[in-house]
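User: Let's play a game. I give you a shape written as C-alpha cells, and you guess the letters that built it. Ready? Here's round one.
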C-alpha cells in the first residue's frame, strides 16, 4: 500500500501529493497513540492481576489466622501490608552491619508483636508461619503498588517511552509475583519450600540426637562423623524461621576450638543449569542482607578457620515455592559432600555444619526430614497427574 501511495505521490497530480502527505502525517501522529493504547491495555490487565493476587494473599492469610475473621482482623492485616523498613545510612560504611542488624531485629520484633496481637492463642510454630506469610504478602503488595504507580504515571504523561520500558519488564515482574504469591500460601501453611534445603540436610545429619536452642530460633546437635565432633546447626522448625546462624557460629567459635565451618544453602541457578545440581566452593553460602554472613566471616578470619560451602541450584522462584522432587533428591549427594568436607579436618577436631535457609515445614530430626521427603514425593505425583489431565483436555 505504501508503495502504491508513493507511486501516486510521485506523479504530477497535486491531489495525489496532498493525499500522500496527509496519510503520512496522520500515520506518524496516530501510530504512537495506537501503540500506547495497546500497551496500556496489556499493562493495565497485568496491574489488575497483581492487585487481585495481593488481595487474595490478604484473604488467605486472614483465613489462616482465624476462620471466624471479622472486619477488625481484615483491616489489621490490610494495614500491616503497608509495613516498610528504611535502610540505615551507608555513606560512612563503618558500623553498617550493626545498624542493619539492629533494623532487622526491630523488624522481627514488630512482626512477632503484630501476630501476637491478632492471634494470641495460636501456637508458636503456626505464629512463625503467619509471620513468614505476612512477609511474602507485603512483598507481593509492594510489587502490585509499584506497577500501578507506573501505569497511572503513563496515563498522566502519555509517555510512550515509559510504557515500552514497563512492557519489557512485565514478563519478569509477573513471573516473580506469581512465585511470591504461591510462596506466600506455602509459607503461611507451613509447607517445605526450596530454600529449606539447608535445614533439611541438617535435620538428616542430626538424626535422633537431642537438639538445644543455642541462639534465637537456632537449634544445635552434637554429631560424631568419622571421628570428628560436628556441631550441626539449623533454624528451629517446623515453623517458618531463618534464625540467627551467624550469631550461633560466633558463640561456638568463642567457646570451642573449631577447625572448619561448612555451610549448606540453596543458590540461584543460571538458565540452562539443572534444578537440584550441586556445586562446592569456599566462603559462606548464605543469602539475605549479609548480617549473619558477616558474623561468620569475621570469626573465621580472626581464628583462621577454613570455610567450605555446598550449594544446590534452583531458580529464585523455586526457592520460595513448595520444594520440588529434584531438590529433595539432592539431599543424599550433599550429605556425601559434607562427609568429604568434614574428612578434610583431622580426627578429634571440631567442625561446624550450618544448614542455611527457611526451615518452614522442616523439623529438627531425621524423622521430621523423612516426613518432608514423603510430602515432596506426594506433591510430585499430584503435579504429574495434573499435567496428564491438562494434556488430555
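Assistant: Ready! My guess for every position:
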Amino acid at each position: 500500500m505504501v508503495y502504491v501511495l508513493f507511486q501516486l505521490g510521485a506523479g504530477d497530480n497535486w491531489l495525489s501529493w496532498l493525499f500522500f502527505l496527509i496519510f503520512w502525517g496522520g500515520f506518524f501522529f496516530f501510530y504512537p497513540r495506537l501503540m500506547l493504547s495497546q500497551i496500556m491495555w496489556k499493562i493495565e490487565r497485568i496491574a489488575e492481576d497483581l492487585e487481585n493476587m495481593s488481595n487474595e494473599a490478604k484473604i488467605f492469610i486472614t483465613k489462616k489466622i482465624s476462620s471466624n475473621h471479622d472486619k477488625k482482623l481484615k483491616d489489621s492485616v490490610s494495614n500491616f501490608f503497608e509495613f516498610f523498613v528504611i535502610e540505615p545510612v551507608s555513606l560512612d560504611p563503618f558500623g553498617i552491619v550493626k545498624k542493619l542488624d539492629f533494623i532487622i531485629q526491630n523488624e522481627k520484633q514488630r512482626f512477632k508483636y503484630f501476630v501476637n496481637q491478632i492471634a494470641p492463642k495460636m501456637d508458636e510454630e503456626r505464629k512463625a508461619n503467619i509471620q513468614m506469610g505476612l512477609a511474602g504478602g507485603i512483598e507481593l503488595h509492594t510489587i502490585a503498588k509499584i506497577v500501578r504507580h507506573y501505569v497511572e504515571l503513563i496515563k498522566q504523561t502519555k509517555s510512550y517511552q515509559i510504557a515500552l520500558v514497563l512492557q519489557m519488564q512485565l514478563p519478569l515482574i509477573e513471573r516473580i509475583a506469581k512465585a511470591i504469591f504461591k510462596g506466600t500460601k506455602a509459607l503461611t501453611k507451613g509447607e517445605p519450600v526450596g530454600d529449606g534445603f539447608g535445614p533439611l540436610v541438617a535435620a538428616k545429619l542430626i538424626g535422633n540426637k537431642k537438639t538445644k536452642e543455642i541462639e534465637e530460633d537456632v537449634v544445635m546437635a552434637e554429631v560424631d562423623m568419622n571421628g570428628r565432633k560436628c556441631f550441626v546447626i539449623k533454624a528451629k522448625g517446623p515453623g517458618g524461621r531463618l534464625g540467627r546462624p551467624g550469631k550461633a557460629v560466633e558463640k561456638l567459635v568463642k567457646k570451642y576450638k573449631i577447625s572448619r565451618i561448612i555451610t549448606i544453602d540453596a543458590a540461584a541457578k543460571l538458565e540452562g543449569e539443572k534444578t537440584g545440581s550441586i556445586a562446592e566452593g569456599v566462603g559462606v553460602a548464605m543469602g539475605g542482607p549479609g548480617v549473619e554472613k558477616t558474623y561468620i566471616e569475621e570469626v573465621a578470619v580472626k581464628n583462621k578457620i577454613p570455610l567450605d560451602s555446598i550449594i544446590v541450584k534452583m531458580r529464585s522462584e523455586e526457592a520460595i515455592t513448595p520444594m520440588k522432587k529434584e531438590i529433595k533428591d539432592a539431599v543424599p549427594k550433599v550429605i556425601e559432600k559434607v562427609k568429604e568436607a568434614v574428612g578434610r579436618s583431622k580426627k578429634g577436631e571440631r567442625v561446624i555444619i550450618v544448614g542455611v535457609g527457611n526451615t518452614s515445614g522442616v523439623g529438627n530430626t531425621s524423622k521430621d526430614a523423612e516426613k518432608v521427603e514423603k510430602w515432596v514425593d506426594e506433591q510430585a505425583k499430584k503435579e504429574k497427574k495434573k499435567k496428564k489431565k491438562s494434556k488430555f483436555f
